[in-house]
């Protein structure tokens, strides 16, 4: 194993790599590599037994040149200041590559929510919402779900914000339940853009997705839905899936939706009856499959592991699953990587649709959401491949950053703050 990469340094390296193909002033480039501001706070929460516990929490507002800061809130013991900075920076380039009118932000609490009761998680979430209230808003910073958060937490944050502000402001947060102003299709959106990116990539690379074998690391919101949609809508064969407890494998494939149902019932994919064998996460990542989808956390594939990746195509559902050193190895080995800032952008894109619907108080059908999402992702894919061909970038990631950075710089210049 090589030393664990710092995700914030990875982000900065990705920006630098793209800058080589752009005419961007070095002082302006510096601006694109650092967050504008970060809230760091300690949340004091009452436990069920009456004791108090203190939790560290962050919100990073990286860049707002193209619109309000936008990005999820993560609950995980591995959350850190640098991780949140990186995740907020990736949001800037993600919203730019799909060309939706947002900047980038991200938040997180250092906590494993599974160790706490529902009541304790609710009080923790409301305490965070209380701290966030002065810096979020429908036109300023709009949080959303990420690892270990979902509709429930978004509804609590909306409720706390609206109570404190004495108003209704559903657009202050996205990823809500439909009855609280959530959008049809938001739960599936991240997996759907992963599926659409895989479809476009296989087509571009002249490969057949129908019957392609697929391995998915991480079987939560992003991974399980990507797996199911690739199976249902593209005819792919899901042969492996994993979570934090381990991985399952069946060379003949298994029912991706049934594997998720099993995980929901038992807490893990391991032990699923359609699995022929169990693997480690590392073994899953190095399976000889047509398509590998990392859908868990950062740094899943480092340079050492990249040497052993046998997949032809990797589509990143997770944020930052491949370190820059690993990227170099995969590029060298002709493994095609479709980057996170495109492949998982469905989540924030449908969050944007949710916000538009909230602002207009007019709600769309799921079909309309899915059609608009497909348009956004295919247009972004085309912009990325155009840049890849025109600029001759070494891989699709750098092409995506070229497209995104150009858009952020243009917005900054047009603001008149830079000649
Ligand atoms: N939700 C969204 O809308 C979006 C999410 N993303 C990104 O997608 C990724 C996954 O997020 P999401 O699906 O929402 O999160 P979830 O919490 O729903 O799922 C995360 C999954 O990853 C698994 N996991 C965690 N650690 C490991 C590990 N070391 N090895 C293997 N699996 C592991 C978890 O296992 P277990 O169940 O055992 O905990 C779980 O199955 C993140 O990078 C996130 O930032 C990107 C865009 C939008
Ligand atoms: O839906 C959103 O606003 C953001 C989702 C997110 O956090 C991400 O894309 O990483």
UniProtKB/TrEMBL annotation:
GO BP annotation list: L-glutamate catabolic process
GO MF term set: glutamate dehydrogenase (NAD+) activity; nucleotide binding
Coiled-coil stretches noted in the UniProt entry, renumbered to this chain: none
InterPro entries on file: Aminoacid_DH-like_N_sf (IPR046346), Glu/Leu/Phe/Val/Trp_DH (IPR006095), Glu/Leu/Phe/Val/Trp_DH_C (IPR006096), Glu/Leu/Phe/Val/Trp_DH_dimer (IPR006097), Glu/Leu/Phe/Val_DH_AS (IPR033524), Glu_DH (IPR014362), NAD(P)-bd_dom_sf (IPR036291), NAD_bind_Glu_DH (IPR033922)
UniProt-annotated binding residues for substrate: 70, 94, 351
Record carries keyword Oxidoreductase: yes
Keyword vocabulary terms for this entry: NAD, Nucleotide-binding, Oxidoreductase
Glutamate/phenylalanine/leucine/valine/L-tryptophan dehydrogenase C-terminal domain sequence ranges: 183-416
Location of the active site: 106
Pfam families associated with the record: ELFV_dehydrog (PF00208), ELFV_dehydrog_N (PF02812)
Domain of life: Archaea
Protein name: Glutamate dehydrogenase
Binding site residues for NAD(+): 190, 221
Subunit structure and binding partners: Homohexamer.
